[in-house]
Design a protein that fits this description.
heterodimer; A: 196 residues; mainly alpha; Four Helix Bundle (Hemerythrin (Met), subunit A); 6 helices; elongated; B: 97 residues; 2 domains; 4 helices
């Protein structure tokens, strides 16, 4: 590959990364509005349960740890890919994928539990906003997992290319971003909710 | 991760009065945000555009969250301590509606 083409590719990658970054920022605004809605509607329990009644903190702590570890492993995967260790990169991505699935399953089982107890989103304004906020994050996680699967399959099936590294770095950016959002959900929704 | 666990134990064991706990949680969350931003998302090391859009987004987010809480708290203060019937009589007596 001649140098000018390499340079052009580098530039495309940089442009893509900025575009994706701007998407992440708009996503940030989306979550900010959902947080604001949650904060406003939190006292509106309509005689139903409040956060302190329904949250199972140890369970959510484990959930949080799973997500935080997965954020770490995706970083390791990216590092491995950067140094050209394809096998290691795939292994770390698979670990991340499994952790992500675990997180999603835990979250869904929590939702199922709440709905089975009659505390679904129809119960009160508080629960509506809670489900909207947490499930929006869960939906992002699900999309991220799908994307991760595509990246893993591409890495396994095809030769490692320059563009794969770009894709992988965007994925890792997305994953870290979801992690940051979850830290705020954990702090504001669960920890503060259990105080009231 | 350490800050998450710290916040968790503060809350579970209720080491402090509720008011102080809320501040502790928020401060720990923000510390973690900064750590993540610097080490994983590489703020300030990439292009200038990234930092610029990030700061702008931070501004928008703060306006949305603080603005919403402020306005809704005001509304709450003005009205929602009363039931709808009470609001009705209040308006008849004080506003002449």
């Amino acid at each position: 590959m001649d140098i000018s083409r390499q340079k052009a590719e580098q530039e495309t990658l940089q442009r893509k990364s900025i575009g994706f970054w701007i998407y992440l920022m708009t996503d940030c605004v989306l979550f900010a509005t959902l947080f604001a809605v949650f904060a406003v509607l939190r006292p509106g329990t309509a005689g139903g349960p409040s956060g302190a009644d329904i949250f199972d903190l140890p369970f959510v702590l484990v959930e949080t740890m799973v997500l935080l570890v997965s954020s770490f492993t995706v970083g390791l995967g990216l590092l491995a890919a950067r140094y050209g260790y394809k096998r290691q990169a795939i292994a770390w991505l698979v670990v991340t994928f499994l952790l992500g699935i675990t997180f999603l399953v835990m979250e869904i089982s929590e939702f199922r539990h709440l709905i089975a107890e009659g505390d679904g989103w129809q119960r009160s304004a508080f629960l509506s906003s809670y489900f909207t906020l947490v499930a929006t994050h869960g939906l992002h996680i699900a999309v991220g997992l799908l994307w991760m699967l595509v990246v893993i399959i591409r890495l396994i099936r095809f030769n490692f290319k320059h563009t794969d590294l770009g894709r992988l770095s965007l994925l890792s950016l997305f994953w870290h971003f979801l992690d940051v959002i979850w830290i705020f959900i954990f702090s504001i929704v669960y920890l503060m909710g259990s105080l009231s | 991760m350490i800050t998450t666990v710290t916040a968790y134990f503060f809350v579970v064991n209720r080491l402090l009065p509720t008011e102080a706990l809320i501040y502790i949680i928020l401060i720990l969350a923000i510390i973690q945000l900064v750590v993540q931003m610097v080490f994983f998302l590489h703020i300030g090391r990439g292009s200038r555009w990234k930092t610029l859009t990030f700061v702008f987004t931070l501004l928008v987010v703060l306006i949305i969250v603080i603005g919403t809480l402020w306005i809704m708290h005001n509304l709450d203060y003005n009205m929602m301590h009363m039931s709808p019937d009470e609001v009705h009589t209040y308006m008849e007596q004080h506003e002449g509606i």
